[in-house]
DNA sequence: TATTGTTATACTCTATAACTATA
DNA sequence: TATAGTTATAGAGTATAACAATA
C-alpha cells in the first residue's frame, strides 16, 4: 500500500480528507490525476538513475521494436519529434542506444539499443515493479487485470495507431 | 472518434504504426500516457477559455466541497500549497472565487465559488463533455462504465485519502 | 514550535518557429 | 515541394528554500 505518502514529494497526493464521490465524475479527470501520480512516482525512481520518464519510454519502446528511426520513435513514445532530439541525444551519450545514418534514406537516423541499453532497461523495469505493485495494491487481482485490459484497449483506440 | 489528430498539437498522439502489444505491459505506463493525452486535450480546450487544468480542477472541486480553505483545496486538486497560491490568485482576480479570512483561525483563507464561478464551471464542464466522448468513443458503453468504476476505485486507494 | 499562506527561484516538460540536408 | 532531423526559445508545470503572520 502507499507506505511513504509522507515522503519528500511536495505534491499533495496524500490528502487528509476525501472529496465527495460526485467530484470524480469525469473519467478524463481521473485519468489525468492518476496519470500524473503514476508519472510522479516513476519520475522519482528514474531520477535516482539519472533518467526521465521519456528516456525510459524510449528504451522500453526500442526493446520492443528493435530498430526504428528517430521520427517514428518520437511518435511511439508520444513526444514531438523536435523535443525527442534531446532525449535521443542523451541516450546516445550514455551509450544506451546507437544512432546511424540510414543508407537507403540519408535523412534518417536508424536507432537501436546497445547491449548496455538492454541491461539498463531491464534494471529499470525491475525497479519499476515495486512502484507498479504499490499503485495497484488497493485493487484485487481481478480488478488489476480488468483495469490493465481496459487501459490497453483505450490506448489502442486513442493514443496509439 | 479521434477526428482531429492532424490538428495543431505537436505531440505525436496520432502515430502511423502501432507498437507491439508487449510494449504496453505496464499499467503505470498506460496510465501515464493516457493521462498525458487526456490532460493535453483538456488543456487545449481550457486554453481557449484562458485557463489551465489546475484552474478547472479547483473550480470543479470547490463546486463539490462548497467551502474550504486554501491548503485543503491544494491537497484535493493534487497541487503543492505553495504552487496553489497563483492558481487561487488567478481565480480570485477573475472573480470566480472569493477568499476571506477565517475569523476562527486568522491564518486561514476561506475559499468559495462566486455565482460567476458556478456559471463558469458549468460552461467548462459542457465543453469538456465532447472531449470525454471523443476519448472514450472506441470503448463500448459497458467498457466505459467498467473503466470509470475501476479508475475511481484506484483514485480512492492511491491519490485520494 | 507548528501551521497557513506567501514570495522567490530553479528546473523539467511542452509547444512553437525557423533552419539544414536530403529526397 | 515535402520530409528527417536540428537548433533555439518561450511558456506551463513542478519542486524547493526561506519567510511573515498566527496559532
Automatic annotation (TrEMBL), chains A, B:
Organism of origin: Actinoallomurus liliacearum
Protein name per Swiss-Prot or TrEMBL: HTH marR-type domain-containing protein
Entry-linked InterPro entries: HTH_MarR-typ, MarR/SlyA-like, WH-like_DNA-bd_sf, WH_DNA-bd_sf
Organism superkingdom: Bacteria
HTH marR-type domain boundaries: 24-156
One Pfam family per UniProt: MarR_2
PROSITE patterns, per database record: HTH_MARR_2
Lineage summary: Bacteria, Bacillati, Actinomycetota, Actinomycetes, Streptosporangiales
Record keywords, A-Z: DNA-binding, Transcription, Transcription regulation
Stored SUPFAM superfamilies: Winged helix' DNA-binding domain (SSF46785)
Region annotation Disordered: where it falls in the sequence: 1-21
